[in-house]
Amino acid sequence: MQDIGEAFHLALSLVLSGDADLFEIVGLSLQVSLSATLIACAIGLPVGALLAVSRFRGRGAVLVLINALMGLPPVVVGLLVYLYLSRSGPLGFLGLLYTPGAMIVAQTILIVPIVAALSRQVLEDLHGEYAEQFRSLCLTRWQSITTLLWDGRYALMTVGLAGFGRAAAEVGAVIIVGGNIDHLTRVMTTAIALETSKGDLPLALALGIVLLVIALGVNAGVQMLRMSAARQASYGAAANV
C-alpha cells in the first residue's frame, strides 16, 4: 500500500491524464444518478405540490409517512428491489437485475420521498403567500400547482440537488442490485469501496476527487442560478416602481 502522499500524486495523475477506466466509472455514475434524480423529481415534485395545496383527512399521517421514508435504509431498499427483480420475483421477466436500470430503480425509490417532503415544505410556504390571490382568481388545484412549481423553480433546484447528492453517494442499494460488475454496473461509490478494500488507494482517491468536484460544481451552478434569479427579480421590482 502506498503512503498518502504518493497515493494522492497517483490519483491526480489518473484524473489529469483522463484515465479511460476512471472516466468510464464516472460516466456511468452520472448516467445512473441523473436518471434517478430526473425520475424522482417527475414523481416527487407533483406529489409535494399536491400535498402543499391540499387539505384532507389523514394528511398529517401522509406527511409523517413521507418524512419517515426519507430515512429509508438503503440496504433494505436494495434487498426489496433485488427480490422483485430476481428471476423468481414478480418483475424478473424484465431482466433488469445487475444492470444500470436496476440501480436507477433503487436510487429513485430512495430519493422520491426526499424530493416530495422537501418540495412540499418549500411550496407550502409559497402557497401561504399566494393563497388569497389564487382564491380571488378562482384557480383550480392543478393551476395552483403548476403556478407554484414554476414560481418556486429556483428553490426546487436545491431540492433536486439534495436528491442528486443522495443518489450519487449511495452504496448499499446499488451494490446489491447492480453487483459492482466491471464495465457494466461499477459506479464511483462502489468502486471506491472496492478499491479501498483492495488497497488500490490511487484509483479510490481519484474517484473521490471527481465526486467532490461534481458535488461542488453542481452546488455552485445552482447558487449562481439562484443569485441570477434574485437579481432579475430586483430589477423587475425596480422597473415597476
Tag the structure with descriptive keywords:
globular; MetI-like fold; single chain; 10 helices; mainly alpha; 0% strand
Structure commentary:
The protein is mainly α and about 240 residues long. The N and C termini lie far apart (about 65 Å). Helix 2 (about 20-55) runs parallel beside helix 5 (about 100-135) and helix 7 (about 155-170) packs antiparallel against helix 10. The longest helix is centred in the last third of the chain and has 40 residues, at about 200-240. It has helices spanning about 5-15, 20-55, 60-70, 75-85, 100-135, 140-150, 155-170, 170-180, 190-200, 200-240. The mean pLDDT is about 85. The chain is globular and about 65 Å long. The protein contains 10 helices and no strands. The protein has a single domain (about 5-240), classed as MetI-like fold (Orthogonal Bundle).
